Amino acid sequence: MAEQGNGESGAAVTGGEGGSESSAVDNPGLPPHRPRLADVDEKAAKRNERQVSVLFLISIIGTILSFIGYFVVGQTEGNLGDLRLQNTLLGVGTALAMLGIGLGVVHWAKTLMPDHEIVEDRKPLRTEEDRAEAEQIVTEVIDETQIKRRPLLRNTLIAAALIAPLPAVVMFRDLDRSDDFGPERMRHTLWDEGVRLVRDPTGTPIRASDLTIGSAMHVIPENLPEISSHGERIAEKAKAVVLLMRMNPDDFEHTSPGRENWTHEGIIAASKVCTHVGCPVALYERHTHHLLCPCHQSTFDAAREFKVIFGPAGRPLPQLPITVDAEGFLVARSDFTEPVGPTYWERGEA
C-alpha cells in the first residue's frame, strides 16, 4: 500500500504527458516600451543636456579647487588654519571632480541615451561579416550616446576628463620638492653617536630601567625638534622612527660579528620603516619576538637581527646600535649602518 501511494503521489506531481503539455507557459515577450519625456520632447532633452553639462562643469570646478588648495593655500610654515583650509579644498575639490563626472555620465545614460530593450540571437562567427557587424555596433553605440548631436555634452565631458587626473599627477610628482631628492637621502638619518633615544611624541629621555622584558615603545632622536622647517622635520622623523624593545638576553639566537655591542642588557632597537614599501612596522609580539608590518604582513624576527621570516619584504629591518650614556639614558652609538626604508635598485651598499 505504501508503494502504491507513492506512485499516485508522483503521478500527481508530474501530471503525465498530458499534464506536462498543459503546464507550458507561452513567452510573454518584452513589455511595451514607454518613452521618456526626453524621447518625445526636445525641450526636455535640451534641459537634461544642460543638467549633464552642469555636472561636468562642477567636476571642472572641483579640479580647480584642488589646484588652488595645493598651490595657493597652506604654504605658510606652521599655520594650522592654512593647513586645515588646504585639506578641505583638496578633499572637497577631489570629491567634486570625481562625483561630477560620475553623476553626469549616469544622468546622461538615464535621460538621453536610448533605453529600449532588444533580444539578439547569437550568430555563428564569420570573419568578414563579424568585422562588419562589430563596426556597425560601434557606430550604433556612438549614435546612441548622441555625442555627435550634442557637442556641449561632448566638449564638457572631454574637458572634465582631461583635467580631473591632473591634481593627483602633480601631487605624486611633487611629494618632495627638495633639490637633493634621491637615493642618497635615505642613507643617513638624524641618529648619530651620543644622540639620546626619546619617547614619541613627548620627547622624554629613556633609561634602561624604564623598559621591562617584553615591553616596547616608539622612539625618535632627541635632536628632531631642532629642525625649524615643519616639512623637513616630518621628513626626517619618517626616516628616523625606531621601535625599542627589551628581551631576555638569552633569547637572542644570532649575533653577527661586529654587532656584539649593538644592544644593552637585552634592549634592542630597529627602524620602524618596512623594507617592502615603507609602511610603519609597529606590531610586536613579545612571546615570539616577531615584528609585523600591517600593510602586507611582512614579519621580522627580533631574536635573529630582524631577519624576514614571512612576507614580501626583501631584507631585514636596519638595526640601530645603542648603549647608555654617563647618566644612564639610552643613546645611539651611530647612525644606521645601511639605508632605511624599502629596497630599491640604486640602494647599493652604505
TrEMBL record:
Record keywords: Oxidoreductase included? yes
| MF GO annotations | 2 iron, 2 sulfur cluster binding; metal ion binding; monooxygenase activity; oxidoreductase activity, acting on paired donors, with incorporation or reduction of molecular oxygen
User: What is the annotated localization of this protein?
Assistant: Cell membrane
The lineage's top-level taxon is Bacteria
Ordered alphabetically, the record's keywords are: 2Fe-2S, Cell membrane, Disulfide bond, Electron transport, Iron, Iron-sulfur, Membrane, Metal-binding, Oxidoreductase, Respiratory chain, Transmembrane, Transmembrane helix, Transport
Chief place of localization:
membrane
Domain Rieske: from-to ranges: 262-331
For region Disordered, the annotated ranges are 1-36
Q: How would you describe this protein's topology in the membrane?
A: Multi-pass membrane protein
TM stretches of this protein: 52-73, 85-106, 152-172
Q: What would be one Gene Ontology cellular-component term for the protein?
A: plasma membrane
Q: What does this protein do?
A: Iron-sulfur subunit of the cytochrome bc1 complex, an essential component of the respiratory electron transport chain required for ATP synthesis. The bc1 complex catalyzes the oxidation of menaquinol and the reduction of cytochrome c in the respiratory chain. The bc1 complex operates through a Q-cycle mechanism that couples electron transfer to generation of the proton gradient that drives ATP synthesis.
The family this protein is said to belong to: Belongs to the Rieske iron-sulfur protein family.
Q: Can you say what this protein is called? A: Cytochrome bc1 complex Rieske iron-sulfur subunit
Lineage of the organism: Bacteria, Bacillati, Actinomycetota, Actinomycetes, Micrococcales
